[in-house]
Amino acid sequence: MDQEQARAWLATALDEARAGLAEGGIPIGAALYAPDGALLGRGRNRRVQDGDPSAHAETAAFRAAGRQRAYRGTTMVTTLSPCWYCSGLVRQFGISRVVIGEAATFHGGHDWLAAHGVEIVLLDDPACTALMAGFVKHNPELWNEDIGE
Q: Which position among 58, 102, 141, 149 bears the catalytic label?
């Protein structure tokens, strides 16, 4: 995948992450793009805001996209390596590619996805890393709750 395109799509997910943080939530954002590059859906982690442990960014973007005939060729863009729950969503529905802003703060299931044929584009984006590192530093209990520790 073209790095310039990946970074442009990441900007949408990063906007969602920042909006989530401004709402008092966990700053993780995501977007789902069609094979032709059209934005299908976007969302942010809303576990805190909605009191819903399943309201992860990737699931929010997936739900916002609505029902699709197929997901082959789509790209999930996320500011942070997807957890096992969200990695399962990618595999379950056959999403072809995952663009990840960063995996230093949390190394989720992206190696497993790659081993099962999903294209992984890891950008190591400094803005994503700074956003999450700051959040984890200032909110360790909330972060540990989010990752199930």
A: 58
* Sheet containing 75-80, strands listed edge to edge, beginning at the edge strand earlier in sequence: 39-44, 29-33, 75-80, 97-102, 119-122
Kindly compute the dihedral angle of the four CA atoms of residues 86, 92, 95, 100, in this order, to the nearest 10 degrees. 20
Place of tokens 């379950």: 92
pLDDT, residue 148, reads 67
How do strand 119-122 and strand 97-102 relate by DSSP bridges? parallel
Active-site residue, 141 included: no
Q: Are 63 and 43 in contact (CB under 8 A)?
A: yes
Distance CA 100, CA 35 (A): 17
Ramachandran class of 128: left when φ > 0, alpha when ψ lies in -120 to 50, beta otherwise: alpha
pLDDT tens-digit readout, 100-143: 999 999 999 999 999 999 999 999 999 999 999 999 999 999 88
- Return the SS3 of 121: strand
CA-CA distance, 5 to 45, in Å (whole number)?
23
Residues (pLDDT < 50) of the chain are none
| pTM exceeds 0.90 for this model | yes
Distance CA 50, CA 71 (A): 27
